[in-house]
Design goal:
Memb_transporter_dom, 1% strand, two-stranded parallel sheet, 743 residues, transmembrane, cell membrane, single chain, mainly alpha, 2 strands, FUSC family protein
């Protein structure tokens, strides 16, 4: 019974780690709910009324979710600075509530300063958010000058409770968070291997579903890898350790993705295109039974399960794990590969390389392992890893020049949201002189974390949709609790937890829970009515419209312009990674390739987010949506091959089967030139230079001098050729002319 309970608990932990990497959403929800509950527990025995209780609860919520710094010391300083900002904002809200013109002018100035404060980093963003949200709280509870002394005390209690929960009850340290993210990476890597096993066993009718699951889990693994990279500096004791973890995570991700491609190729009628893994909705290639005898399929299934077991096991390996590891690492040697067709033998090679990456990940995350049971293949792999680790060196980051004046994003956004808020105030007061701030709040929120008119339009639409459904839920919940304070506050806490837990997943869901919660708060404040909730929908729609109008007419950043700028950045990063990797593979000087690869991944993530308005299901431009999805998928394919080249280039000093070949620089030069040509064309429509096609890179290297330069592995050539093909394919949807070589 106890064993079953432990297994159930282990599965639950694995599920949470995979669905919520680092438990970031769970921690955010628990921390916010804990701060509110502690505030209510402190204030309730004092016999304060409902209005101070609501004020304290909302203040503690703001003080908790507004903090953005990652280091605990910086969080404490920001929280201390936020208290006087909140007191001043609350006081001005109460004093100006009866002076309409002065109150409106102050609200606009406060909004401008809050948005402009983003240019000063996380602390400026947090203090601006606290100032605006506390002003909103004063309007929501109807604070008056006579209530200020009591409300000051309540706000102080809210901040204190937020600090207690943050630093003592639900502490999140950088090292602890990184440890949970690493565990999430393990679980997601194991789930990706499970998806590969499902693909191996899928029949013809199940191939599309199995491929979609494989595609989704590949994307989730990459998402977790990026999250780990963003936390390395704060969560590791020194730069070499951070670089070691970064390298091992990247190696494991690339090896797992390559294994999926090899398996897909083995099951298909022809070699699978990398695009198949990156284009959502792309049909699975025609599949049949795995070539060769059934024993080969059974052996492959057994070894994939063994690989999954290696991924999930932590700490020092036992004899059983060492035996599995030795067998799988043996597939890196040709003589240990089972008798099978060439595509199936490639899959076994992929398992061997994935096992090596998993062993490197185990050493980086868990420390030195027991080497007493090492086979010769395992000992050789361990020596390669040690040699790579010794080559780690730090490199200073380059400083980039930021735009100034109205071209600075924070300044432009501050002007836009101020204009939009002015329109929202005017229109909101025409709808209601008491609830106009809902329109302003919506206008403010749709500008948060958005950078183009299209993003603001989509966010406004989602907020309105969530609000409409939230109104219905608010009506039902208000009728359910009636005037009972305790059940109402319990439901408020549950809704707040759901709001923060779902916020990164769905803005519509978050808006739904916010509106349902507000219906309960109105009930507690005895201001609930059907008309109030309908008015909230009207004010929300007005605020969203005002935000879109301001974004479209005042210093607009069109979605096309935004995506083009990000596309140019992605292409430049792709060119940097590809050229540096090829240079190193050609015998040139070593560079920090994984840093360049991380910059490419971050730029691609920004582009993916910016294209969401173009790929949204409600967009009427179907052709444009298809083109945007295809371009992003092609770029993800290019990024995969560039990352693989970078990882292979870093193996150059230690791997016995990879040797530098100076001919690579000339053979791959066409690909790098084509990437730059496309980037120039996207940045300037007047440019008409074409991309060039020509013989395959493998054919360019097939000459009598091959033996002079050592062995170039098939993996390098395969990645170079696929990258070249993907870049040429990228030219067509971007309207870049393609020129064939002259005969």
């Amino acid at each position: 019974m106890k064993a079953a309970g432990r297994r159930w608990g282990s599965r639950l932990r694995d599920h949470l780690a995979a669905s919520d990497p680092g438990l970031l959403r769970l921690a955010a929800g628990l921390r916010t709910v804990g701060a509110i509950a502690l505030t209510l527990a402190v204030l309730s025995p004092a016999g304060v009324g409902v209005t101070p209780l609501v004020t304290g609860a909302m203040t503690s919520m703001v003080a908790t979710f507004a903090i953005r710094e990652r280091r605990r010391g910086a969080q404490a300083v920001t929280l201390a600075l936020g208290l006087p900002v909140a007191l001043a904002s609350l006081s001005l809200g109460a004093l100006l509530s009866q002076r309409v013109v002065f109150g409106d002018v102050f609200a606009i100035l406060l909004i401008f300063c809050a948005v402009y404060g983003r240019r000063f980093g996380d602390r400026g963003t947090t203090l601006g958010l606290i100032g605006f949200q506390t002003y909103f709280v004063s309007l929501f509870v109807g604070a008056s000058p006579g209530q200020l002394p009591a409300l000051w005390a309540v706000v102080a209690v809210g901040f204190a409770c937020s600090a207690v929960v943050r630093f003592a009850v639900v502490p999140v340290t950088s090292a602890g968070l990184l440890a949970r993210l690493r565990e999430a990476f393990r679980v997601r890597l194991a789930r990706l291997v499970s998806a590969q096993i499902a693909l191996l066993d899928a029949g013809p009718d199940e191939a599309d579903k199995a491929l979609e699951e494989l595609r989704e889990r590949t994307a989730r693994l990459h998402e977790t890898a990026l999250m780990i990279q963003s936390r390395l500096e704060e969560g590791t004791p020194d730069e070499p350790t951070a670089r070691l973890v970064q390298r091992r995570v990247a190696d494991a991700e690339i090896a797992a993705e390559r294994l999926g491609l090899l398996l897909l190729s083995a099951r298909g009628a022809e070699r699978a295109d990398t695009l198949t893994l990156h284009l959502p909705g792309a049909p699975a290639p025609e599949v049949g039974r795995l070539p060769g005898p059934e024993e080969g399929t059974a052996l492959l299934r057994r070894d994939l399960r063994a690989l999954r077991a290696l991924v999930l096991r932590t700490g020092t390996a036992g004899a059983g794990v060492a035996q599995l590891r030795n067998r799988l690492l043996g597939y890196r040697d040709e003589e240990n590969l089972p008798t099978a067709s060439p595509p199936v033998r490639d899959v076994f090679r992929g398992i061997g390389e994935a096992s090596r990456a998993v062993m490197g990940l185990r050493i980086a995350l868990d420390g030195p392992q027991d080497e007493s049971d090492d086979s010769p293949a395992t000992a050789r792999s361990r020596e390669e890893l040690d040699a790579e680790d010794a080559a780690i060196d730090a490199e200073e980051a380059e400083e980039t020049e930021e735009p100034k004046g109205l071209q600075r994003p924070t300044t432009r956004a501050a002007v836009q949201v101020s204009v939009g808020s002015t329109l929202a105030i005017v229109g909101g007061e025409l709808l209601s002189t008491d609830r106009w701030y809902w329109a302003v709040l919506t206008c403010w929120i749709v500008f948060l974390n958005t950078a183009s008119t299209g993003e603001i339009l989509v966010k406004g639409y989602r907020r309105l949709l969530g609000t409409v459904f939230g109104v219905v839920a608010g009506i039902l919940l208000a009728g359910l609790v009636g005037g009972n304070t305790v059940p109402a506050f319990v439901l408020v806490l549950l809704l707040i937890f759901a709001m923060f837990y779902t916020a990164p997943l769905s803005y519509t869901l978050m808006s739904f829970f916010v509106t349902a919660m507000l219906g309960l708060l109105y009930t507690l404040l005895h201001t609930y009515s059907w008309e109030v909730l309908v008015l909230r929908v009207e004010e929300t729609a007005l605020g969203a419209v005002c935000g879109v109008v301001a974004a479209a007419l005042v210093l607009p950043v069109r979605t096309d312009r935004r995506t083009n700028e990000l596309l140019v950045t992605v292409l430049e990063r792709l060119s940097d990674v590809s050229e540096a990797a090829v240079t190193q593979l050609s015998g040139g000087p070593a560079e920090e390739l994984l840093d360049k690869a991380r910059e490419l991944d971050q730029a691609l993530g920004d582009l993916r987010s910016a294209t969401k308005p173009l790929t949204h299901p409600v967009t009427p431009l179907r052709t444009r949506r298809t083109t945007a999805r295809y371009v992003v998928a092609l770029l993800e394919t290019c990024a995969y091959h560039a990352r693989s080249l970078a990882a292979t280039a870093e193996l150059l000093p230690t791997h016995p089967s990879i040797a530098a070949d100076p001919r690579l620089r000339g053979a791959a030069g066409r690909t790098v030139r084509n990437i730059r040509t496309i980037a120039t064309r996207v940045a300037d429509d007047e440019v008409t230079d074409p991309v060039e096609t020509g013989p395959s890179i493998a054919s360019l290297l097939a000459d009598d001098d091959a033996a002079r330069y050592g062995r170039i592995t098939g993996r390098v050539l395969r990645h170079l050729e696929r990258l070249d093909e993907a870049v040429v394919g990228l030219a067509r949807p971007l309207d870049v002319p393609v020129r064939a070589p002259e005969r």
